[in-house]
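Z., the sequence and structure:
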Amino acid sequence: MGNILLKTRLFIQPFILVAIGTIALYSLVHGLYIYCGLDLLNQEVVEYFIPIALPIIPIYIWLYPRYKLIQARKGKDQDFNMALFAAVAIIAPLIISQMYLDKAVGSLVKLDNTTEINTKPQSKYYELKNCYFDKQYAGFHGKSDVSGRHSQDLNFHIYVALPIFKDADDTANNVNTLWLGRVYNKTVGNHGTEEEKDKKYDDFRKTVIEDFDTRDFKQFVYLKREPKSEDRNNFIKAIDRSGKAHPQTLNILTAETEPFENRTGSLLQWIFIAFGIGTVVYSLIALFQKIDMDKLQLYQAGKPTEEEDPDSSVWRLLVPKKDFFITPILLDLNIGIYLVMVFCGLGIMSFSSDDLLKWGADYRPLTINGQWWRLVTSMFLHGGLMHIVGNMVGLLFVGAFLEPVLGRAKYLFAYLVTGIISSGASIWWHVATVSVGASGAIFGLFGVFLALLLLKVFPDGVKKSMLVVTLLFIGYNLAMGLTGGIDNAAHIGGLISGLVLGVIFSFTLEKQQLVKETPGTDA
């Protein structure tokens, strides 16, 4: 019983305080942000990105030192795992709380006609009695993106925007500020040829047009103002194609068909359900941990409990060090560009092809017509969250083994050269495909690694296990590329060029090794 009480005091009680404090404080700030009508950040950043990143701070400050007291299992520390469990348990109810606030905060303003929207207090919600939707000047904007761990899903989106007028006679106005937005979505399998995918999109487009032509857009209960978001940006692109003049400041509304009082659904209950489930699971995991009593005594005495380097936390992976210098820089650069794109409002889970092109994606018609720099810039762009997570894990793995052996110069040279070759292979194979990602360069590094393993540059103890892991990584990813949606041309280009570089590097590395092993010779 005493051990249970000790673990409760050390791990569970502080977690509950940190979780409740984080959720309550951020929800208060977000609620005031909505109530004051602020529109500074994209909705995706406020409701998803910040809640995912925010718990890291209190966990690292108040909980992580306690997790260092947990006894290692099978030679592995449990501190990071406990921090990860705590983060997940906080993030889930925190995100649901922000979704609830987004719907709950704000009153319903009643309007007799569209002209009153500028005379009454600005609100998120409007009840509009008299209006006219002009289908003649509707604008359409289509986009697609991929999702899933292996990009197995192809998502189609068509954004439609219609100008809203007081009545049919009011359509003569040259400039319109009030628009109704509606988005159509469809997900299909991301496999098959480009022609087959185009056929799927064309079928989807025809379905959208049929629905648009027959739909009575007056069938709504209330309208919701579209906040600064990825959807709003796409609605603006649709408005730009409508042929109707408009100012920069636009009121974009979306139709809601459920009663206003039901807008939050069961989100409030799910906040407590998610918090309860997360707390119970976290508590059970905490109670099964073994405490290092020696570290506990030091902790209670206010002395450092770390026996190893104080820089041995997970954050060391992002900090350049003597034998691990280039890999952290590449990680920081790729992750930094992704974060900048997120805070620019381009999305979180995925970015549109148009935005990726603006940021430097590889695209044959542009690349071969003077924009050769895309061969390099595309290596540091990613299509979304899952894309960059998968690539950075692969880069971290191969970099940890390869960089100390090659050295900074050869390692960076291999990354850039194989990355450029993979980009070239992509535009050679694909006539009109937007290509991004560090995977070609990472395949190049794995190619170098594979060559060095086969040519016995690494010791036998490392060779056997790493050779199996490397072959599995390469084979699995190439096989997934056959299902479609993955740029196997870039992967193969990077892999082959990496193998060639690995063979070249092996002669120098073997020579260096012989010099080191010769008695009386300076290394």
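The chain has three domains: 2-104+266-301, 132-217+222-256, 332-517. DSSP finds 17 helices and eight strands in the chain.

Let me know what you think.
H.
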